[in-house]
């Protein structure tokens, strides 16, 4: 099995957030000597605050402040003891007030994250199952992952997709006692809501179904006694629903609250709720402020506060309705999301608004898909109508300028959010106008000498190699064997190539670079559904090739414009082909390209390392051995040289169909075990075409008769499929092996024999491809770290596979 270094999700997030920090839109600090809720001071500028989640403004209410101060004087800054033993004097009063609000038993938690970590593993039993909405808050998803250590199935559905939810319920129904669907009441980024009436209907249809809602963004501004959006929809809390509300955000204090109508669940969580048992309890000041807020919630005043906020949200909706700003979700929630598409546009837009005197949040990956970056605006009772009007006017003015600065358009943004197009005037920058784009669907429309001068001598994508690939991977019987080829050459005003590349549109397994444990689970599902979790992908290069699939002249001052021109072309291609993802792959680390692609909405992931042999200057085996390190020489003598006597080696330019069938089976042996780089098989016709093409040959490793199980004939135990690129680069594209003979070190022997063959043919370089880099390094290959940049329509597949990791 190929050893593949998988991408670390946290490294990707770190790259994105670091980029946003560099652009001055995250990790900021307020500089105010005191806060009012209406304004914040950032970088010396007083800004109107449109980023709070304290929608009713209660965090500035004098009654809450006074209660908190008095509690500190009476009880101290904290009560340092687990509330399993004893709670401070305010806890009982707060619990009683909250139970009065909800008309149900409650449990107070330090915050909602600790609350979920305490409650979810407690209420979900080993015989239960869990289904997550893929946009449910991270804290819920994180807590649910703990269940997998107990073998509780954790599944995921696309956001608010009730048909998919019902399918998952049916799938789990025969093996799970209870099925928990976990969702937000109000989602924090777009401000959209859970379809609660439809979920209740599903509960009637499937009595096993239980609902678990995180409603922290629906709290206080909606519902009887301010108990939130979910309670407003439910009316009465059923026993099969668990609800989380918050005592922070709109409630104005700190902490969270779990509500249940099920006395047994309440007792279990109160007796032992993990961090709820062992962590510190809510501080006296927080409990006192929450008590003061609860009194407001239990009074008629709460409805007056709600009405004032609703008036503001209606007004803001009316202002936006008179613009063409892309409001992603329109409803009565105080959360508004204006799409910008690429992060760069978001950075420019936020900074322009800050210069104009308004603070807003940037919605950024991983909270949203990278291509769905946007500005999140929250309305609170602190905001006055005149500054709301001024904000909308500023957005109308600055939004098109941010688009223009980042070479995009309103309709490109709308396409990213699946919104209807509007009529707009398309603008082309002077820089882009000086570039010409040649786009072809076959290499035969590209000048052979020019292509080879730009991209020849590597892997199998010189001009002849691509002609071969087009013949094999077009008009095939199976969808995974059909590639659409796209060739781009972008030239400056003097017709000099600035950028050249080729891409393919093809079907990928979504887990191609996922951990092997995930791929093994998915392959079980694919026994019944071969195309489960597969997507159409536009990829630089192809699934057959490896190496630097692009040429770029970074000495040309227009190279960045050329890259942007290519990306603009790919946006249209992605829409036309209905591709789920665009992948620009096999880059070496390059700070300038990294910054450019991040700003254009691509995120970086680690690729398997590439392996290249560049030193073929030696004359014989002893000369080759001298190029290796002392440790590698020791390895060579023990694991390669000592086994060489067991083998015969043949170099075949052609093979019979019977032989090709055998080679194909050897190849499938390797591919089927290689879950670390999970791809579809190749068509059988590929091997026939290799046998008929002068640029391909087979290195066949035979176990000598005296060592074989069947001593009547030599046994082929391995085959290397090799491409000869322009008499310069030898390309062992992939290998087939019979694992029954692994004891003879056949893989290492084949690597060595490939090096010997390349030298015998006087090639200057060997492209050994990726995977198994440790083994290839031991035979003299240089290891080259590679990265890819991806832009997906949504995060669903990635998050789904995240739930499958063990």
TrEMBL record:
Its cofactor is pyridoxal 5'-phosphate. One of its GO terms (molecular function) is pyridoxal phosphate binding. It comes from the Bacteria. Residues 631-773 form the BioF2-like acetyltransferase domain. Transmembrane segments: none annotated. Keywords: Aminotransferase, Transferase. The keyword Isomerase does not apply. Residues 49-393 form the Aminotransferase class I/classII large domain. The keyword Lipoprotein does not apply. InterPro entries: Acyl_CoA_acyltransferase, Aminotransferase_I/II_large, AON_synthase_class-II, BioF2-like_GNAT_dom, PyrdxlP-dep_Trfase, PyrdxlP-dep_Trfase_major, PyrdxlP-dep_Trfase_small. PANTHER family: CLASS II AMINOTRANSFERASE/8-AMINO-7-OXONONANOATE SYNTHASE, LD36009P. This is Aminotransferase class I/II-fold pyridoxal phosphate-dependent enzyme.
